[in-house]
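In response to a reviewer's request, we include the raw inputs and outputs for one of the modeled complexes. The two entities were modeled together in a single run.
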Amino acid sequence: MKHIISLLVENESGALSRIAGLFSARGYNIESLTVATTEDPTLSRMTIVTVGSDRVIEQITKQLNKLVDVVKLQDLTEGDFIEREMMFVKVKAQGEAHRSEIQRLSDIFRARIIDVTDTTFCIELTGSGKKLDAYIKTLHEKDVIEVVRSGSMSISRGEKALTT
Amino acid sequence: MELSGAEIIVQFLKDEGVEYIFGYPGGAVLHIYDAIHNQDEVKHILVRHEQGATHAADGYARATGKPGVVLVTSGPGATNAITGIATAYMDSIPLIVLSGQVPSAMIGSDAFQEVDAIGCTRPCVKHNFLVKNIEDLAETLKKAFYVATTGRPGPVLVDIPKDITAPQIKIPYEHPKNLKMRSYNPTLKGHPKQVKKAVELLLAAKRPMIYSGGGVILGDASEQLRKVVRKLGYPITQTLMGLGAYPGTDPLNVGMLGMHGTYEANMAMHECDVLFAVGSRFDDRITGDTNKFCPHAKIIHIDIDPASISKNIDVDIPIVGEVKQVLEDMHSLLANHHLSPDAETLKKWWQQIDGWKAQDCLAYDRDSKLIKPQSVIESLYKVTEGNAYVTSDVGQHQMFAAQFYLFDEPRRWINSGGLGTMGFGLPSAMGVKLAFPDADVACVTGEGSIQMCIQELSTCLQYDTPIKIINLNNRYLGMVRQWQEFFYEKRYSHSYMDALPDFVKLTEAYGHVGIRVENPADLDDAMREAFALKDRTVFLDVITDQTENVYPMIQAGAAHNDMAISPQQEMRRNSINPEGELA
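The model returned the following structure tokens for the whole complex.
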């Protein structure tokens, strides 16, 4: 089952490689990983999307907690949470009909065209991973030039929070 | 006090009460060596290979409970130390490894003797640090000691670029106190509710079994374990890493468990209804087939590391905390409890265990014309009256030592259990002897293992560490040969050691005493002679029976009741039926 694990880690050069190394050394999966500093510059916040049985997820959270650089950890999938991912798609957009079709589709998905040339659009879209997948499906494969996805970032709903 | 980085390191080690540093100099650590030269409080032991330094510091740490300290240079100094670091990591031994690094400005330039020591060691340290500013040096060292020695202990590496230790830059130094790390807080005290539940389950048991491991020794909880076990009167088995926490000669002790454990210990594991795991981690050499592990048992598990709980085996009552404290709490509860174990039920269980014991699973041919390896350990036990510190390498000799030397005290049996590192025995014995110069220290080894760190014989002479090396010389990599005999139809692929050196002459060349024994009748005398030479390192080269195998044996991945207990039996599955009888 898919789990989203949120971590607060020391903002130190080795922290990311310790966490990535743990996943590879113990054979755990990383579906996506995002990381950036928080409002406290000594802390980074990381969101890891991983897949595994309950037993594996329990080990992942325990092993992560054991790392000296990990300050706090939360498995967001244990409660209600909000998940968003951002994507840029560069697509071929040639001819009046084709360009307006892409524009219409983007409107439906609330995507924004953020860069335009005579032959291409660059589109920005934010949403759940599934929404992003769905949007890509609507485009013709041969039209897609480049896709950049940020990986999931997540936060719990309500008052519960991951803070120090 | 204004000190250079190098002086800070040496002063810090003094302030921590460090007696010995095991190390090897090189370009990146020359400033530190210069600071070591100016004092004699912290003694430096110059090894002959950095692997030897880590094992010696490791042996020192295992025997004393204090952290071992290692100093190596950058590049090959650091990479040579890695086997020893990984050895300490697998057995949770507190080590502080200081490695030199090329100057900060040259990091990443593929400089001479540059290696990413932080990256190389990351998977086999509890934590590591790169010192980026001299101002951080003292606090980083303090953190290293704190992390290495608290919670589940382990090795910590501190990588120190050469410019940090330069004599020109001096800063004020004070020994850091009151260290706080927001991201590191080991759980120390077991949850009282869990402790209570555990006690109740234990008292209600019909066929209880206590299984204790290295955590009891690392946690200095031997005394507490003894109190609880004796209070309950339950059978106890100990892992390879746990030997000596509970006395080997005590009637409640049923011997080691696992792959080469005793028949009675493994059968009792299989049949028990309550298993009490104390500071042990359900390693695969212990559990065998995890699906058939203790099939009838409810399991209680005390461990300081939450990640050890339910990692390999699901447990019913987990208790995370210091084993010493938890056992102390359990003992007070037991002492005041209105319930006590049912004497009649317990008696029946012991009768069943005594029945298994009657199989005499460690029996061997005592009339053999060739020296049996088991008899060498028995002779060692007799001559040292069971009081020696025994280190070992890895293989058949290690298992024989674990089976036949009955350790009555903790920290006396020193071996690489987790990583299984050949070459560990000799340097670790050196570390033990430095810690306890008046004690008998023996290194039980084989002709394969000893050659992996034999250069340390030279260190033994320089620092006068008179240890006794007991070499079970069967001209084979014995455990490899045993597996090839059982599982590869006797195709002995590269397990025979041809062209062995004359160990007696070799030892003499290193300035020590060498004695060869080929006849069973000469064994005890030679053993006595070796230990009578109090101030000499003696290499006892014992020519043993090449065909001897370690029994009992559970095949890797088989169940506890699926065990071969003697050479007369063919090595095959299901040789013992589920009822525990020989098929």
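As requested, we also summarize the result in words. Residues 570-578 of chain B have pLDDT under 50 and may be disordered. The CA atoms of residues 399 and 455 of chain B lie 24 Å apart.
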